[in-house]
Each structure stands twice: as structure tokens, then as C-alpha cells.
Design a protein that fits this description.
single chain; 544 residues; mainly alpha; elongated
Length: 544
């Protein structure tokens, strides 16, 4: 739409308006402020111009304040501050359909939902930048302009007057803390928290700690100690939730749980931002920072690409957190583990040589392309599963297994000691990878020679004729498709590791090992001892 002239906009305040007209006027005003420029300096200059014009026109200022009071009387900003930007659901398809509806269907300004109105008013990616760029003097003038002359009645016993904005902040803080406590008290979280944290959970006292901060602030006393204690409890809640990740081996993890953990972390950050706006915002920069953040997350909430990235991240976190412990077994840290890795890699190399011989055997059958591909796939699958079951190692598979373990160590990378530990772990990883490569390669050649010699002794013919050997040798060239095949093999191995991690997590999450071991129908069919062996076997080998 075309930009409205400021004088025309201000003249419209002379006429009484309905609720929807107030919302439309606000949209037009912000559109005028935003302008067409990409740089935030121009909108900031227009805000300053608006303030200068209003300062020169007291009657218009009075009308604007009346308009502002009527607007705040019809929309509730508390839910905007506490819930805006948080996903209402973690189901991908339903959230995708909701975002597509927001993109494709026109929204109406006829609403009493502050979140819907906020999304209509600040609907441009540039809004977050120019709000954050507002200088302190402009913020102070805006706060003076929009502070209502008749604030709502404060709580009983309050020694200080409470403005509409502060009243909204108090409600938003209460709503946010209630959401954090509800997440912390949910069954999925409590089941997976470590016992000491669960028994002395900071979630129990979080509401009382907030009440103490609010009572101290309303009483006009210094809130420093109470606020610091509350912030400490907030951090304790976030750390308590983080202990969930250390109990994945026993309970597994779901995308829904990862979603809740991330929501809890973001709500903790939102509470801290709201508290800064209430207690430490004499220059109003915390308020501008909060509104800029809300404008930014509003853009993300409407973005389909952000939804896909977020769900991909949730799935990756699920697999990585669950697979990190498995990857630890592929990293050697002393001589004994290094020798064991060499032995396991030698076993993998020997089986790889046998697999290659079987491949040439299938080729010798002269099957059609479909059946040759089918039986080759079956043979390779059987070989890889056998390597897994015998606890042997393939160097090409190691990166897919060790990557989650390395990623898990990057959580506290800001700590210098954690950084040094990560560097040491990289050294161990490189040595482990070299051991796997040496073990694989060194044994492939002698085992292949032995297999060929055995075939010559038993059948009188070598594994490959000179012509076939010459064809195979010249087909393996860096100038041909060998590099592409090698890269695609790595993709397949990585994909198989992802699927294996997902299946193992699904098995643990649904406690199927316990069901096999103790379910009365299964134990009656297998017997208690055999059911226990089956449960233990599946628990340790289901990923293979």
C-alpha cells in the first residue's frame, strides 16, 4: 500500500473510531514509520519526526493518548509478551499447515488477540532492526508519550503506582513461570531428570521466588537480592532440564521431548528479558530489545523454511543425543583400546575381503542386471550386519558413529577446560580412525591372497581370470566414477547409522527390552532365562 502522509494520519485521530479502525490506523502508522528503505536510520528519523510533531501539537498528543488507552483496553498484551513466538505444537504437518494458512490466507485486523495484531503491525523483517536501533532519548520520549495518566489499580498493599505496561509485565512473568513449572513437572521430564535434581527440584520454589521479587518491588524496597536469587533459580531449572540428556540410555528420547526442552530454555530467556524490563529499564533499552526480539521471532514463526530447519534440528538432536554414547566406543584413549581397535578393524577387513570374493562369485553366475543387483545388495547387507554383530569395525562407518559423540562435547565449548578436552578428544579420534584404516587395509590384501590361493588349490582356477582382473583394475580409476561411488557409499553408511540410531532410540523409548524380559505372555512362551537373553541381545544389537 502507498505510504500515508503523517499529517493525514494524525488528522484521523480527530474522529472517533471503532476497535478495528484503531488497529488499521496503527498498521498505517507503522507502515509510514517503516518506509521503503532497508537501512534502519530512516525509520528512526521518522520516529523522531513524529515525536517532534506531537510535541508541537498538544491537542493531537492528547488524542493519541486517548487512542492508546482505548487500544490497551481492548487487547491483552500479557499473552503477547509471554507466549508470542513459541510453537503451539511440535507435530510437523499441523504446524506446516498453520504456517501455510498464515502465508496464503489474508489476516483480519478485527481481533482482540494482541499476538495477531502484533503480527499484522510488525510484519516486515526490517522491523526488528529499526526498533533495536532506536536511541535512548527517543525511547524515553516514547515512554513518556505512551504512559497513561490514569494507571490501573495496583495490588493491595502496593506502595508504588503500577502503570499499564508494568501491570502487563507482571502478568506475563506469572504466565511464563507457570509454563516453565508445568514443563518441569511433566512426567516425561521428571522421569528422565537425575535423582538429586528431581528430589530438590528448583521448579518447586520458582513461583514463590517470583512472588518474593514482585512483593519486594511493589513494596518499594531494593529488589537486588531477591532478583538475583530468582535468576539463580531460573538457571537451576534450565540445568535441571539439561540432566535429561544424561539419562537417554535408560529412557530414550523423543522429538516431542527435545521440543519441550528447547521451549523451556527459550521461556527461561523470555522471563529474564521480562524481568529486565520490569526492574532494570530506566532508559527503556530492555523494552526495545524485547520488542525487537518479538518482531524477529514473529518472522520465524511465519516462515516455512524456519519450520523445516527447526524440525530437522530436532530430529538431528534426537539422533545425536541418543547416539553419542554409542560413538564413545569407537574412540580409543589408551594403548589397550588402540590394540582392540586394530583387532576389530582387522576383523572388519577380513570380512570385507570375503565379501569381495562373494561379489565376484555372484558376478560369475551371469545373472541379469536386476538379480545381480538384488543378490549383491543382500550379500553386502548380510556382511555389514555380520561385522556389526561380531563387534568388528569399518573405517568408513566410524565418522557417522563418532560425530554425535564429538557434537555432545561441544555443548560447553565456551569453557576453556571443555575446549581443551575437546581438542584432546579430536586427537584420540584421529588416532582411532587411523587404527581402523590400518586394520582394514592391512588385512584385506593377505586374506584376499589366501582366498585366491585356496580357490586355486581346490578348483584349479584363480578367483579372477587375467582378462577379468585387467578389467577390474582399469575400472577402478580416479578419472572414472569411482570417486562418485565412494562418496555415495559414505552417504549410505551415514544414512544407515542415522536409521540405526533412530531404531535403537525407538526400542529404548518404548522399553521393549523390559517388555521382552518381563511380559508374562513372552516369558510364558520363551521361558524366563531365554527371554532375559533375548532382551539383553536385542538391547545391545538392535541398532545393527
Amino acid at each position: 500500500m502507498a505510504q500515508d502522509d503523517l499529517s493525514t494520519l494524525l488528522e484521523q485521530l480527530e474522529h472517533p473510531t471503532t476497535g478495528v479502525d484503531r488497529h488499521i490506523w496503527l498498521i498505517r502508522l507503522i507502515t509510514w514509520v517503516r518506509g521503503a528503505e532497508d537501512a534502519p536510520e530512516a525509520p528512526v528519523a521518522r520516529v523522531t519526526l513524529l515525536l517532534d510533531v506531537l510535541a508541537a501539537r498538544p491537542h493531537t498528543t492528547s488524542l493519541l493518548r486517548s487512542w492508546w488507552a482505548e487500544l490497551l483496553g481492548t487487547v491483552d498484551g500479557s499473552t503477547l509478551l509471554s507466549d508470542y513466538g513459541f510453537g503451539s505444537r511440535n507435530a510437523f504437518m499441523s504446524e506446516l499447515m498453520e504456517r501455510l494458512n498464515r502465508k496464503l490466507l489474508p489476516a483480519t485486523p478485527e481481533t482482540q488477540d494482541a499476538s495477531e495484531l502484533f503480527a499484522l503491525v510488525l510484519n516486515d523483517p526490517r522491523d526488528a532492526r529499526w526498533i533495536a536501533a532506536l536511541p535512548a532519548d527517543a525511547l524515553t520520549r516514547l515512554a513518556t508519550l505512551l504512559s497513561l495518566s490514569v494507571p490501573p489499580p495496583g495490588p493491595v498493599g502496593a506502595l508504588r503506582p503500577v502503570s499499564v505496561w508494568q501491570h502487563t509485565l507482571l502478568n506475563a512473568l506469572t504466565f511464563c513461570v507457570s509454563q516453565i513449572r508445568a514443563t518441569g513437572f511433566s512426567q516425561e521430564m521428571r522421569l528422565r531428570m537425575s535423582s538429586p535434581v528431581r528430589d530438590g527440584s528448583p521448579f518447586h520454589t520458582l513461583a514463590a521466588d517470583l512472588d518474593k521479587v514482585i512483593d519486594t518491588w511493589l513494596g518499594g524496597a531494593n529488589t537486588g537480592a531477591a532478583a538475583q536469587h530468582f535468576r539463580t533459580q531460573l538457571d537451576a531449572c534450565r540445568q535441571a532440564a539439561a540432566t535429561v540428556y544424561s539419562h537417554l540410555d535408560a529412557h530414550g528420547i523423543s522429538v516431542d521431548l527435545v521440543f519441550r526442552l528447547r521451549q523451556l530454555r527459550e521461556r527461561v530467556l523470555r522471563v529474564r528479558a521480562l524481568l529486565d524490563c520490569l526492574l532494570d529499564d530506566t532508559d527503556h533499552t530492555s523494552t526495545a530489545r524485547l520488542l525487537s526480539h518479538l518482531a524477529s521471532v514473529g518472522q520465524e514463526q511465519r516462515s516455512v523454511g524456519a519450520l523445516i530447519a527447526s524440525n530437522s534440528s530436532l530430529l538431528a538432536a534426537k539422533v545425536a543425543e541418543r547416539s553419542s554414547e554409542t560413538g564413545e566406543h569407537y574412540i580409543t584413549r589408551n594403548r589397550a583400546e588402540y590394540r582392540a581397535m586394530l583387532g576389530n578393524a582387522a576383523g572388519g577387513g577380513a570380512l570385507t575381503a570375503l565379501t569381495t570374493a562373494m561379489k565376484f562369485g555372484i558376478m560369475a553366475l551371469g545373472l541379469s542386471a536386476f538379480w545381480y543387483g538384488f543378490w549383491s545388495g543382500v550379500m553386502y547387507a548380510a556382511s555389514f550386519v555380520l561385522i556389526q554383530m561380531l563387534h568388528f569395525t569399518l573405517a568408513t562407518k566410524q565418522p557417522a558413529m563418532t560425530a554425535p559423540a564429538m557434537a555432545a562435547k561441544l555443548k560447553d565449548i565456551s569453557d576453556s577446560q571443555a575446549l581443551q578436552a575437546f581438542v584432546d578428544e579430536v586427537t584420540h579420534l584421529v588416532r582411532s580412525q587411523m587404527a581402523a584404516i590400518l586394520g582394514n587395509v592391512v588385512l584385506v590384501f593377505p586374506v584376499t591372497v589366501l582366498l585366491s590361493a585356496a580357490m586355486v588349490l581346490t578348483t584349479g582356477a584363480p578367483m579372477l581370470t587375467p582378462e577379468k582382473a585387467d578389467y577390474v583394475l582399469h575400472s577402478l580409476t580416479l578419472l572414472g566414477p569411482s570417486l562418485l561411488f565412494a562418496a555415495f557409499t559414505g552417504v549410505l553408511l551415514f544414512s544407515s547409522s542415522i536409521v540405526a540410531g533412530w531404531v535403537e532410540n525407538w526400542f529404548v523409548l518404548h522399553r521393549l527390552d523390559s517388555a521382552i524380559r518381563y511380559n508374562p505372555r513372552i516369558t510364558a512362551w520363551l521361558g524366563a532365562l531365554r527371554a532375559d537373553r533375548w532382551a539383553q541381545f536385542m538391547r545391545h544389537n538392535i541398532s545393527g
